[in-house]
Structure formats: structure tokens, C-alpha cells
Amino acid sequence: MTEETPREEILINVTPREVRAALLENGVLQEVFIERDTRRGLTSNIYKGRVSRVLPGMQAAFVDIGLDRTAFLHASDIAQKALPDGDKAVQPVADIRELVREGAEILVQVVKDPLGNKGARLSTFITLPSRYLVLMPGGDGVGVSSRIEDEAERDRLRGAIEALRGETPCGGIIARTAAEGAAVEALRDDLEFLRKLWESVRDAGARSKARTLVHEDLPLPIRILRDLVSPDVEKILVDSPADFEKMQAFTASFLPGIEPKLELYRRRRPIFDLHGTEDEIRKALDRSIPLKSGGYFIFDQTEAMTTVDVNTGGYVGHRQSRGDDLPHQSRGGGRHRAPAQAAQPGRHHHHRFHRHGRARAPRAGARRAGRGDVARPRSSPGDARVAARPGRNDAQTDRKACNISCARIVQVAVAADS
């Protein structure tokens, strides 16, 4: 590893109520993933649902998948029959009434978790990710992650996958970033695993009754291994012996090359005290983020978006008496905004804040939000927002988050006295 290469490590903290994972780069927090037992994320789960209502005016349908609220399925998210071979024209979206009917049972995948009064958003474009590939059973063609920039490597992967598809047709395939440099045999094993997984999901869907969960994504610690570990990661620390054993079994079967990087954290000091990670998470998730200039950010979440309000606060400039000083005043406060924004790591809630990142199937757009991005919530009651964020109206969620935070404080105090 060269001096210019970032040194990355992953910390995984497991408690009875929640699992947290943090990606650190040169000791600095970059991304946070949180999954709480009471509100696990639903994104990527596959259900057999029943269409309860069709709304032609919205070109959408509501589908009952067994949750508290019916889920939303737009016509553009419904897979249609492919155009004849050789026809490259853009296929128009058909009328929703031609695609589904009330009472019909369909296999759907969650692409966005419920939030507030809105139900989950669904798609019938099923995607199944593995370490190197993403299988789209209803798709066609071969794609390569845009993060693989070397054209020769892109051509190699595309040719190798085309050859593998020719052996046994299975739908569309996308090579993930982790596939860069992967041997053809590893790609073949990955594709065979995905084929078997899809057969299992398809058969389970055919047997299941409506309003049933057919396939659930992997738990957070295993997803971290599958989606986040790269050659830059030097160490993966987990503080739960039970989860450590599960992760060892997973790496032995699917990722033998990273097994030496996996370590069980045995010290009494909480794992997130390393590098001040706990403090960094707390500061990053505060509703108000102060700036050196005296101004501050306010982060608020609505059902449709996360809003960022930039306030000059105590910064009034140096020449208050002149009305033409406003541009100068704004620039003065703005000088400190970018660093504070950049200090917001990607937040993933599986109870999760989540930003489109490496864990996301290509359906969601494989974008990694680093320290220079303002994180978008993704990836949910599963993506219900991280911790008890002031200003939210969900009192029950705030109480649960507060209880977890209090338990964590007690754990730190006990460790300090030991």
C-alpha cells in the first residue's frame, strides 16, 4: 500500500438493540451504518404482494405486502415485455391499467423504505447483488460499474460476463466495482450463486401466499463484508463473538482473501471509542452544526427530502453599517460552510440513514458519498433517521433512540471504571 493510498478500517459494534458499522479512512469517520432490531430496513427485500388499488390518474398502484401501510408501485417501475430483437427504440411506459389489475398477485422488491405517512416504494425490476455481480433476472445485456475507469479492464469484464451469460442465459448482469481484477472463475462462481439464489426466490414466490416476505437481504455485518470491503481496507474489527463467527464462515465460503483482515475486538473499552468515533458520530448527527464563523447549519428531515438551512448566526461581518456589505457577509460565513458540510459522514440507516453507496444495488445508482457530499437518507422505518434527532415528531422513535444512547453511556462508564 503506497503512502498516497488511504488507510481504511471498519468497526462493527453489536448490541442487543442495534448494530452499527463505521468506515474510517486514516482514522477519520467516513460512513456510518445503523440497523436497529425494532425497525430494520426493508430496502432490497422481496415480497409477494396483492394489488389493492389501481390509480390511472397517478399511473400507479397500491400493493399490500403485509406492512402497516400499502406500498406504492409506479407504472415506470413495472417490468414490461422486451421489444423485438434489434429494435433499439425507447419503449414507452404502458398505461398502469394494462400492467396490473386489482387483486393480482405480483413479486415486488422494495426500493425505498416507508417514511412518515408514506408507504414503501416498490419495483418489479428485481435485482440480486453478490460480491462481484448484480443479477437482474428480468433485464438484458451487460453493464460495468462506472467506478471502474480502466477501459481495458471494462472490456475484459464485459467480454467475460458475456461469455458466462452465453453458457446459461439468466438475464441482465452488472459488474460491481469489486469485480475489478477478479478472475473469470470467481465471476463464474458468483454468477452461479446468483442463478441459484434467483431460482430459490422464484420458487418461493410461486409457493407463497400474498402479503408474504419471500427474500430478506443479509444482516448488516454480512452486508458490510459483501459490499464495503475493498483492497484499501486493512482491518475489520467486530466486538461480538457470535457475529465474528458468522462473518468468519461467510468469508471462508465467499471471500477467503479478506479472512485475515477480520479480527475479534476483545478489549473492555467500547470499540467506537477508538479514534473518537463515538464523538464523531454524535457531532455528525446533531441537528445543528456550528461553524467557526458563528453561523450554523440546521438539518431537518421531511417525508420528501432532507433540508439544510444555512444561517449566519452570530456572524455579522466587519462593516455592519453599510448595506452593500451583504455579499461580503455571506461570503465570510460561507468560507466555513464547506468544511462543516464535508465533516458530515455518509449516514446509513438500516434503521438507516443512507446514502447511495457501495452497498446499494445498481438499481439505486452506485454513488459513494464521501466527506464532500451532503448525505441523502436512503437507504426507511428501516431508514428511519439515525438516533434521536431533535425536531422530529416521532416521539416513540426518539424514546427508543434515547434509551439506546443511555445504555451506551452506561457501558462507557462501566468500562472506564474497570
What does this structure look like?
Strands 15-14-1-2-3-19 form a six-stranded mixed β-sheet, sandwiched between helices. Helix 2 crosses helix 3 (184-207). The protein has helices at 96-99, 151-167, 184-207, 220-227, 241-254, 277-285, 326-334, 337-342, 395-417; strands at 8-14, 18-25, 28-36, 46-55, 60-64, 71-74, 105-112, 121-123, 128-129, 133-136, 142-144, 172-175, 212-215, 233-238, 262-264, 288-290, 296-301, 306-311, 346-349. The protein starts with 7 loop residues before the first strand and ends with a helix. It has 418 residues and is α+β, with helices and mostly antiparallel strands. Strand 17 and strand 18 form a beta hairpin. Residues 83-89, 337-342 and 347-397 have low confidence and may be disordered. The chain is built from nine helices and 19 strands.
Identify the notable features of this structure and list them briefly.
6-stranded mixed sheet, alpha+beta, 418 residues, 9 helices, 27% helix, 6-stranded antiparallel sheet
